[in-house]
Amino acid sequence: MNIYVLYPESEIENKWIIEFIKNLEFTLSRVLDIKTNILRKGHEFNSINKNEYSNSNSLFIFFNGIQNKYDPEFYNELSVLEENINNNGSNFTNTFNICMTPELNSDLPNGLKQAKQYNFYFFTSRRNILKYLEFDSSKSNAWDKIMDIANDIKSIVANNNKQIESKLKYIVYLGRCSNDLQISRDKIQRELKQRNCIVLPEKEISDINNDIIYKQLEDCSLIIQVIGGQYGTSSNNRYSNPELENRIIEEFLNNNKDLKRLIWFPANLKSIESRQQLFINKIKNKSTGNNTEIIESNIEQFKSILPEKLQEQNDKKFLSTKEDTEVETLKKQVYLISKQNNQSDLIKKYAIQFKIDINNFVQEQNEISYLQYLESIATFDNILIDNSNNDSIWLDSKLKDLVKAIGMDRKKTHKYIGIIGKVEPENYNFSFWLKHIQPIRSNNAADLINFFEKIRDK
C-alpha cells in the first residue's frame, strides 16, 4: 500500500509532521500484515502518478491548517487532488484529513470535505486556546489518534482483500460536544469502533438541521450524547450546536419510542456559564423517560458499561422482531438487485406465478443506506441480480457485495443466486467463485423459470 502524506512545501522540515510520519509508520508496521510505503509529498506533490488515484491500495493523507495558517498554493494543489480523484471514478474513502484547526475546513475543496477527519488539536479548558496534540509521552492523546488512523487503514486493507473481520453489530449516533469534552468523546468513539460499531455521523455536521440529523438517526440502534461544562459554538445564533442537536433528537425520539438514548455527564459537573447550566438542568429535569438514561460518571466508568447497554438494545430489538421473523421465514422470498427497472415487470410476473415475494433494490433509485442494503443481502437466502444491461464492472460490484454479506449475518453462501445477462465478471476471482457456487444463469428475464421453480420446490 502506498500512503501519500501531503503538506505545504514550506513545511517540509516541520518537526511535528516528521514526528507524525515516523509514529504512523511505526504503528502501521505492528497493525498491518502488509508492507506500506509512506511517501512524503511537499514540493513533489504533482509528481504522483495519475493511476494511483484509482488504485484502492493508495491512500492520501493531507494536513489542513498546519501552524493555523492558509497557504494558497497548497490549497490549489488540494484542488488538483480532488479533481484527479473525481476524474478517475474514485470516491474519498481513502482520503484522510489531518485537521490542525477547525477554522480552515471551509476552505477545503468540496470533495475533500468528505474525507475522514482526525482532529489533532484541543482547546484549553480555561482560556479556550487552541493547541496541538503532541507526541511527548506514551500517554499522549496523539498516540490514540495515530492508532485510530492505523485501524481505519487496516479496515480499508481488509475490505480491499474481501475480508470481513467481524460482524458489524450496531449503528450508534454519537452527538456533538463542546471543546472541553472533545477528548472524552474521542475515547467513547474509539471504544465503540473497537466493539465493531459504526459511529455516525462519520464526519462533523457543519449545518445542523432536522433533515440531516433525522437521516443519520434513522439507521441507528442507539444514541449517545456527551454534555460538558461549556455552552459551545452556535450555527444558528440562537442555540449552541449541542443544544440544537438535542432538540432535534428529542423530536425524533417522540416518534421513535424504541430507540434508546444515553446522555453522559462527567461526575459532579457544574458549569460557570449560565446558559450551559440551564441547558444541563433542563436535560436532567425533562429528558428522562423510557427511552433515555442519564449517566453521571468518569469516562472510564462510562466506557465500561457501554457493552452492557449495547447488548440491552440488541436484546430488545431481537425480542420485538422474533415473532415477525418466524412468520417471514415461512415465505418464499427473493432479493432482486438491479441497476434500473428494465426487467422488473417480467420478473414480478414470474414471482406472482410461483407465489414468491420479490423485494427490489434499484441502484439508481436507492433510498436506503449501504449498510441496510448489505444487511438485506445477508438476510435473504435467494438473490437475483438483474444485469440485463450487460455491464461487467457493475456485475463485479454486486458480486463483491454478496461476498461482504457472507461474514455479516450470513455464515454460508446463499441458497440460490440467479444472474440475468450475457457478460462474465471482469475480475477473475469472481469468475472462479461463480464456477464454485454455480448460480442459475439466464440471458434475459424470460429464461428465469428454472430459477423460480427451484425456490418454489426447495
Can you summarize this structure?
With 458 residues, the protein is α/β, with parallel strands linked by helices. Helices cover 40% and strands 18% of the residues. The strands form four sheets. It has a five-stranded parallel β-sheet with strand order 2-1-3-4-5, with helices on one face.
Assign the CATH superfamily of the largest domain: Response regulator
Shape: globular
Mean pLDDT: 80
CATH architecture of the largest domain: 3-Layer(aba) Sandwich
**Separation, N- and C-terminal Cα atoms:** 45 Å
CATH class of the largest domain: Alpha Beta
**Count of spatially separate domains:** 3
- Discrete helix count: 13
Describe the fold and architecture.
The protein has 458 residues and is of the alpha/beta class. The chain folds into 3 domains: 1-164, 3-Layer(aba) Sandwich (Rossmann fold); 166-326, 3-Layer(aba) Sandwich (Rossmann fold); 331-457, Rossmann fold (3-Layer(aba) Sandwich). The chain contains 13 helices and 17 strands. The chain has helices spanning 15-31, 72-87, 141-160, 182-194, 210-217, 241-254, 274-286, 299-328, 344-353, 370-379, 392-405, 428-437, 449-457, and strands spanning 2-6, 37-41, 58-64, 95-99, 116-119, 121-123, 130-132, 170-174, 197-200, 222-226, 260-266, 292-297, 333-338, 357-362, 382-386, 416-420, 440-442. Helix 1 (15-31) packs across helix 3 and helix 10 packs across helix 11 (392-405). The longest helix is centred in the C-terminal third of the chain and has 30 residues, at 299-328.
